[in-house]
Design brief:
single chain; about 260 residues; mainly alpha; about 80% helix
Length: about 260
């Protein structure tokens, strides 16, 4: 157990990032676990515990800052649940190399979003029926991504709220954490029923992620966001390149 305490630090780093940008810390946690040889199912299911812990901490903090759109967050969160169940089920049979390629594509999309997110902001829009129908489908898809990759689904929800609904980024990222609370909780339950996670490893990740979520929510108020965007985008793109490379060589350090 002692030799796994490093997972607390990994969860903490992912939690800070996940809270600040609204994507969930899985975009950091899952690549690291994958590089170390964790199976796709173990990496995703363990990471979801961290995503849940991070969402709880972030939601508490952002609620005190009055930056959450509760009505929209509750609707999108509940709509994501069927997708999370499906995502957990299909993750059981994914080949490691396929997972690495697919997750590499998700990381590229995440980096593009992080780097360009300010350009997505529009004036507040009236949410049309067509947009709500699209949001229902997007929520189901985000739920699948959440459980399959263990990242929470924020890569879908934040752009949806900002670009599609005209919500300000300062409210979209906090609202995304409320949504991820529902998505990650249902994913954690399904993965656990299927016997996927290692609860000791998941617990250490969750501890670090909870503290990171509290810190990230506080830092999001006054940090110079542009520097963070550049740094995180570069790191994520390097991780994506490594995943693509590993998928072609079949490399891995340790099997779990």
């Amino acid at each position: 157990m002692i030799d796994q305490l490093w997972l607390i630090l990994l969860g903490f780093a992912g939690g800070i990032l996940g809270s600040m940008i609204g994507l969930g810390g899985g975009i950091i946690v899952v690549p690291v676990l994958t590089f170390l040889g964790f199976s796709p199912t173990a990496a995703a299911s363990n990471s979801l515990f961290a995503a849940l812990s991070n969402a709880v901490a972030s939601t508490i903090s952002y609620s005190k800052q009055k930056r959450i759109e509760y009505s929209l967050g509750l609707k999108l969160g509940l709509l994501s649940i069927p997708g999370t169940v499906l995502g957990a089920v299909i993750s059981s049979n994914v080949a490691p190399d396929v997972f690495k390629v697919l997750f590499g594509l998700v990381l590229i999309a995440s980096a593009a979003y992080i780097f360009l997110r300010r350009n997505l902001e529009n004036k507040q829009k009236t949410i049309s029926k067509q947009m709500m129908i699209f949001a229902i489908g997007a929520s189901f898809f985000a739920g699948i991504i959440s459980s399959f990759f263990g990242i929470g689904g924020g890569i879908v929800f934040v752009p949806l709220m900002v670009a599609g609904m005209g919500m300000a980024m300062k409210r979209a990222a906090p609202t995304s954490q409320l949504i991820l609370l529902f998505a990650s909780l249902s994913g954690v339950i399904t993965h656990s029923l299927l016997g996927h996670p290692d609860f000791t490893q998941a617990g250490f990740l969750a501890i670090g992620s909870f503290v990171g979520g509290l810190v990230g929510a506080r830092l999001s108020i006054d940090i110079k966001e542009r520097y963070l965007q550049i740094l995180v985008s570069v790191v994520i793109l390097i991780a994506a390149a490594k995943l693509f490379y590993d998928s072609t060589t079949g490399s891995g350090i340790v099997g779990f």
